Amino acid sequence: MLELRGVTAGYGRTIVLDDVSVVVPTGDAVAVMGHNGAGKTTLLRVAVGLLPVRAGTVLLDGEDVTRLRPNARVRRGLGYVPQGQQCFPQMTTMENLQLITTSKAEIRGVLDTFPALTELLSRRAGLLSGGQRQQLAIARTLLTQPRMLILDEPTEGIQPNVVQEIEQVILGLTQRGDLSVLLVEQHVGFALRSTGSYYVLESGRITAQGEGGAGALDSVRAAMAV
Ligand SMILES: Nc1ncnc2c1ncn2[C@@H]1O[C@H](COP(=O)(O)OP(=O)(O)OP(=O)(O)O)[C@@H](O)[C@H]1O
């Protein structure tokens, strides 16, 4: 379980998150939605330890990790896929995976989740499509064996015709049951389909929260229209 409790954080003199609390229960998937600049990425950076809090606490499986560095949080089971399909472009798909593990069994395991990558193992990551690179970025993070996966706008910058492919992959991950997922998304319909509960973040504050599913669409749209 990941819990952000009363978190305030920002950059320089600017406060971006103001007393924000979010809970991702073990095995569940939670979406955070909000307009551009609402503070979604900042929230994830705080969760991962890339940005210190000014007030509040970050708990991972009940342990206070607020002062722990990102690598210590990764060792405790946190996996982070930042925006932008980040991989090493000059290296092949396989080399990108082998930077995380040389275990053939583990790589085979992750390729079962991303069969589209199997055909692309010898292709340089820089030559993959955005959707393929996103799958590689998620696959690399899964190889670190996270219990809590944090995804920052995985469908951003992906061609509309492959967004659905990414959505299916993420849906599979959120339904695995052994993985908790915190997902930041602008595609409200997709975010609600793939998660059990949601938060709306606007101007650094949580303005709505509830259970996910198609029934929540109107409430979320109303909260985001304000
Ligand atoms: N490194 C930084 N230094 C200063 N201000 C920043 C920095 N990163 C983000 N901000 C500001 O913090 C605010 C929140 O940004 P953040 O990226 O968290 O929002 P977001 O909801 O993820 O937006 P988007 O959907 O556009 O990614 C914005 O006003 C942004 O300009």
Automatic annotation (TrEMBL):
<comment type="similarity">
    <text>Belongs to the ABC transporter superfamily.</text>
</comment>
<keyword id="KW-0029">Amino-acid transport</keyword>
<dbReference type="InterPro" id="IPR003439">
    <property type="entry name" value="ABC_transporter-like_ATP-bd"/>
</dbReference>
<dbReference type="InterPro" id="IPR052156">
    <property type="entry name" value="BCAA_Transport_ATP-bd_LivF"/>
</dbReference>
<keyword id="KW-0813">Transport</keyword>
<dbReference type="Pfam" id="PF00005">
    <property type="entry name" value="ABC_tran"/>
</dbReference>
<protein>
    <submittedName>
        <fullName>ATP-binding cassette domain-containing protein</fullName>
    </submittedName>
</protein>
<dbReference type="InterPro" id="IPR003593">
    <property type="entry name" value="AAA+_ATPase"/>
</dbReference>
<dbReference type="InterPro" id="IPR027417">
    <property type="entry name" value="P-loop_NTPase"/>
</dbReference>
<keyword id="KW-0547">Nucleotide-binding</keyword>
<dbReference type="GO" id="GO:0005524">
    <property type="term" value="F:ATP binding"/>
</dbReference>
<keyword id="KW-0067">ATP-binding</keyword>
<feature type="domain" description="ABC transporter">
    <location>
        <begin position="2"/>
        <end position="226"/>
    </location>
</feature>
